[in-house]
Every structure is written in structure tokens, then in C-alpha cells.
Specification:
Blueprint (H helix, E strand, L loop, with lengths): L4 E4 L3 H12 L4 E4 L23 E4 L5 H11 L3 H8 L1 E2 L4 E4 L1 H14 L3 E4 L11 E3 L7 H11 L3 E8 L2 E3 L9 E2 L11 E5 L1 H13 L20 H6 L26 E7 L6 E4 L8 H8 L10 E3 L2 E8 L1 H4 L5 E2 L2 E6 L9 H20 L11 H11 L27 H22 L1
Parallel strand pairs: 1-2, 1-7, 2-6, 7-17
Antiparallel strand pairs: 3-5, 4-5, 8-15, 9-13, 9-14, 10-11, 11-12, 12-13, 16-17
Length: 436
């Protein structure tokens, strides 16, 4: 082990980091504490297990998430390869069968000749070149050690998971299949609501009992993964302009958009399970059964998994992190994944990719290549190291993180401006990959 790169954590970021480093001829020792010790959200010992949604978001190459996925694929991402092998219908989004996805990742890493997989918890940060990719559910022991390095600026927030229901329990007489604006065919099941049904649902949602954080924990909700009941408190129409937006989903039986819509997305290839899109929740389980059964078509829904709340940990990156993803307090310790302060599956994967590439360069004595700032990867890193530290919040990839292109300033059409951003990003990223 003395001549190997240590990686702690076998989630998306740790798995990607291990793959990238091993692909560059570096021996890797990958530690994963599961299944011996599970987190509050994981259910298996598979590497790369998805615990929230099964969607990797938009596959549109002209969108920010689509651009980031394109860059990952260009760099030989294991996670993107697994996603393509495990795809399930999701309209214009990329969604996966969780089990097929995680089994693919586990098999590829377990069989790689330069990767040693050790199933045990690491409670100390090793005094050598290491990638820490323990994720948003970092164990208390490791949290304590990391907090000792980053001090008082160590932060956390709460994240919520959407429920999953049995496909056979859906009343198909009350729902219809359609993707928004017809993009992607009939991949989603839509539960339409009238104004009266929506108001009844909204009242029940806002009055239902919630799981509350423990007394010693501050309640911080990430804006990009807002629980549906927290969203509802902001106004009666807030959910209707969010996950329950009916625009582009006309009911074929009436030819009109309903007042509100709840969309269901396939969880697996067999189409035996569906999750409630955008319905992350911290409601107590009996309350979830009561409230969500008010949704047309879900009156007799059987829940395969209720929504839940868990703590996500991350550092105050602008104060603690270098642009190569090493810690300012310890240059031989790289961070990867959501613990860096990004949010989302593909964003975590992207940070794993960069950490794996940079740690491998450090391990072999090669010069690190700077990530191009105009790329999607560069935009995320720029957010981590240059955002305002006082109110630092994790971020998904979005075009607001990209640098302003001078040749796009005079273009009023938003699609045309974004097309230039995408073109520049892919050009710079391709040159980066060639330099590597």
C-alpha cells in the first residue's frame, strides 16, 4: 500500500477518482466502509449507490448539466459509462436503474488490476497522499478529523429524498403518459389535479407533521433540493411553479393543461417502481402516506421507500480549498465530491474526476494541468474557490457559474449566447484532455 494512492469513499466521486488515477498507471487503494457500516441513507454495499433521485438531469448538450456530462464522457468517465449502460426512460433527462448502475461500477473497479478495494471504515486521515471522497454522509469519526483541519468554517445542510411507489398500485385510469412538451415520448406518468384537488393537497401538505433536526443541529436546507413541504410554505402557488408545473403537459382527455401535475419517473428498467419527481420530503412516514394519497392516481399507492431527511456535510470551500482540490491546510489531501461544496451526482463525479487526475499527477511527479475556466468543470471549481465565503452554499452546474464571454455580450438571444458558451467549453476541454 505504501506506493499506492489512498482514496477514502466509494461513492460517485471516489469511484471516478479511483478510475481516473488507475487509468493513468497509478496503483489505488480504495476504502469503502459499506456494507459493514451503512449510512442513514444507503441500503447496499455497492459502489456508486444513488440515494436520492435516479436522475442525472438533462441530457440536452446545450444545457449546463448536459455540457458537464459531455465533458465527463470525453474524459473517459466510468460513471458516465455506467449511466449509459443503465439508462431508463426519462424524456430528455438521463435517468438510470440504480441497481444496474451501481453493479456496473462495482464490477469494473473490483476487477481493475491496479485497484485494491478494502471494505472497512477509515477513522483517521492518513499522513500521506490521499483523496477524501466520503461524501455528504461522512461518518462522525471522519467528520471530526476533517473539522480539525478546516476549523470553524466547516458547514452542513439538510437534504431530503423523494419517495418511491410500486407501479402496480397506480390507478392508471386517472393518469396519463407524456413528457413535457413532448420531449422524450411518453416516459413520465402524469397525475393531473384540478384547482380543488390542488388546494386540498396543499392544505394537507402544509399542515402535516415533519421530522425535525436534533437540538444541537442547525436546520439548513439546500435551495436546490428543497423539500416539497418547505417549498409550499413559501406560497400557495410555489409548488405549481416548481415540480408541480403543468405547462407543456396537456391532458389528452381534455386537450388542456391541468391546474397542477405530479410527475412520476421510472426507477428501473422493468418499470415496476416510480419516484415522485421533485417531491423530496421530510414529512413523517404516516403523514407521507396520508398526504401523497391525495394525488389523483395514487389513492392506493404502495410505498417502496418513503422520503427521508439526512444531513449532508461540506466544507467552506472558498476558505479551505485550493483550485486543484487539495486542502489549503494540507496540500497532500485532496477532496472530491459533494464534500467540496458542489451539489448533485454529476457535479460530484466531476470533482472526483479532477481530484483523481491531479492526485495521479502528484503521485507520479508530473505537472498538473490547470482545468480550463471556461469549461463546465472549471466553472464548478471557480465557484468553490472564488464564491463569497460568508454565505457559501453548494451549487449545481448552471450557466451563471461560467465566465462572461466577450463575443457573447452583444447577443440578446439566450440560446445563441449559451451555444457560444458550450462551444468554447468543449473546445477548451478537448485541448485540456489532449494535454493530459
Amino acid at each position: 500500500m505504501s506506493d499506492s494512492l489512498l482514496i477514502i469513499g466509494g461513492g460517485l466521486a471516489g469511484s471516478e477518482a479511483a478510475w481516473q488515477a488507475a487509468s493513468r498507471g497509478v496503483r489505488v487503494t480504495l476504502y469503502e466502509m459499506r456494507p459493514q457500516k451503512l449510512t442513514e441513507a444507503h441500503q447496499t454495499g455497492l459502489l456508486g449507490e444513488l440515494v436520492c433521485s435516479n436522475s442525472l438531469r438533462s441530457n440536452d448538450p446545450q444545457s449546463a448539466p448536459g455540457l458537464l456530462k459531455k465533458e465527463l464522457s470525453m474524459a473517459g468517465s466510468l460513471i458516465m459509462e455506467a449511466a449509459e449502460a443503465a439508462t431508463v426512460p426519462a424524456g430528455s433527462a438521463l435517468a438510470v436503474d440504480r441497481t444496474v448502475f451501481a453493479e456496473f461500477i462495482t464490477k469494473r473497479l473490483d476487477k481493475h488490476p491496479d485497484i485494491e478495494l478494502i471494505r472497512e471504515e477509515v477513522t483517521e486521515i492518513p499522513d500521506r497522499l490521499t483523496i477524501l471522497a466520503t461524501g455528504p454522509l461522512t461518518s462522525e469519526a471522519m467528520t471530526s478529523k476533517l473539522a480539525g483541519l478546516v476549523g470553524r468554517d466547516y458547514l452542513y445542510f439538510y437534504d431530503a429524498i423523494a419517495p418511491i411507489i410500486d407501479a402496480e398500485s397506480i390507478d392508471y385510469e386517472k393518469v396519463y403518459r407524456m413528457s413535457r412538451y413532448g420531449k422524450g415520448g411518453n416516459d413520465y406518468i402524469n397525475c393531473p389535479m384540478t384547482k380543488e384537488q390542488y388546494e386540498q393537497f396543499y392544505t394537507a401538505l402544509t399542515e402535516a407533521d415533519r421530522v425535525t433536526p436534533r437540538n444541537f443541529e442547525e436546520n439548513r436546507i439546500f435551495e436546490g433540493c428543497m423539500p416539497i413541504e418547505v417549498m409550499a410554505v413559501r406560497g400557495v402557488d410555489t409548488p405549481r411553479f416548481g415540480p408541480m408545473k403543468p405547462v407543456g403537459l396537456p391532458d389528452p382527455r381534455t386537450g388542456r393543461d391541468p391546474y397542477a401535475v405530479v410527475q412520476l419517473r421510472a426507477e428501473n428498467r422493468e418499470l415496476t417502481a416510480y419516484n415522485l419527481v421533485g417531491f423530496q420530503t421530510r414529512l413523517k412516514w404516516p403523514e407521507q402516506k396520508m398526504v401523497f394519497s391525495l394525488i389523483p392516481g395514487l389513492e392506493r399507492a404502495e410505498f417502496l421507500r418513503y422520503g427521508s431527511l439526512h444531513r449532508n456535510t461540506f466544507i467552506n470551500a472558498p476558505l479551505a480549498l485550493n483550485s486543484d482540490l487539495s486542502l489549503k491546510a494540507r496540500g497532500d489531501l485532496f477532496l472530491a465530491g459533494q464534500i467540496t461544496g458542489v451539489e448533485g451526482y454529476i457535479e460530484s463525479t466531476a470533482m472526483g474526476l479532477i481530484a483523481g487526475i491531479n492526485a495521479a499527477a502528484r503521485m507520479t511527479g508530473r505537472q498538473m494541468e490547470g482545468v480550463p475556466p471556461a469549461s463546465a468543470h472549471g466553472a464548478l471549481i471557480n465557484h468553490l474557490v472564488k464564491a463569497e465565503s460568508k454565505n457559501f452554499q453548494p451549487s449545481n452546474i448552471n450557466f451563471g457559474l461560467f465566465p462572461v464571454l466577450q463575443n457573447a455580450l452583444k447577443i440578446r438571444d439566450k440560446k445563441a449566447r449559451r451555444a457560444l458558451i458550450v462551444e468554447k467549453a468543449l473546445l477548451d476541454w478537448q485541448q485540456y484532455i489532449q494535454r493530459l
